[in-house]
Amino acid sequence: MLHPEKSLPFNVLFLCTGNSARSILAESIMNRVGAGKFKAYSAGSMPAGAVNPHALALLEKLNYPTEHLRSKPWDEFAVANNPGAPELDFVFTVCDNAAGEVCPIWPGQPMSAHWGLPDPAAVEGSEAEKALAFADAYRMLNNRISIFVNLPITSLDSLSLQKRLDDIGRTQGEPAETQ
Questions:
Q1: Is-contact 137 118, C-beta < 8 A?
Q2: In terms of Cα–Cα distance, which of 42, 49, 5, 4 is closest to 22?
Q3: What is the per-residue DSSP string for 30-45?
Q4: Which residues of 123-147 are buried (b: 16+ CB within 10 A; e: fewer)?
Q5: SS3 for 72?
Q6: Which long-range contacts (CB under 8 A, 24 or more apart) does 127-131 make?
Q7: pLDDT in tens, 110-120
Q8: What is the pLDDT of residues 125-171, one digit of tens each?
Q9: Distance between CA 87 and CA 26 in Å, rounded?
Q10: Which residue in 151, 137, 138 sits closest to 34, CA to CA?
Q11: Contact 73, 98 (CB under 8 A)
């Protein structure tokens, strides 16, 4: 079981290289879908310095608060750099580059999984094509996060929970069962 003595909320960190699109979307979705049970953060190994305007536009269109969102380095959440960093329960990489990088040591020895998906910010084409790419990324993340927040986390042993986390990372956004 995961931190049986831990009181809610569980702290979740979403990582990507630039922390401008996918991880920002995931942070926002988790803070809405998992409100009260989860507190989400996001960061990047090489932050872009600004949130992608297409990500902001999509979140604003869906009535998410965006004023607090910012592109930030993952060092803010590492033990060595910030003794006041939140104790993390889960760390998810949402891009393939971040999954392959050597991560800092996170406070709390969190469980982790790779939930990679295509980078909507890399899509070239019309504004409509770019917006569609961001909508697709949002849909996939929303599905994965919805499955995750409905897992019986405190009643699963570590191996079962890790398997579920890995399985969620393979879903593409279609409705799936939480089993």
A1: yes
A2: 42
A3: HHHHTTTTEEEEEEES
A4: beeeeeebbebbebbbebbbbbbbb
A5: coil
A6: 130/54, 131/54, 131/57, 131/58
A7: 999 999 999 99
A8: 999 999 999 999 999 999 999 999 999 998 889 899 999 999 999 87
A9: 19
A10: 151
A11: no
- CA distance to 77, 90, 91, 109, per residue, from 14 (Å): 11, 9, 6, 15
Phi then psi for 40, rounded to 5 degrees? Answer: -105, 150
Which residues are annotated as catalytic?
A: 16, 95, 103
Contact present, 43 and 74 (Cβ < 8 Å): yes
What is the value of pTM for the model shown? 0.89
The total number of residues written for the chain in this structure: 179
Tokens of 85: 């960093």
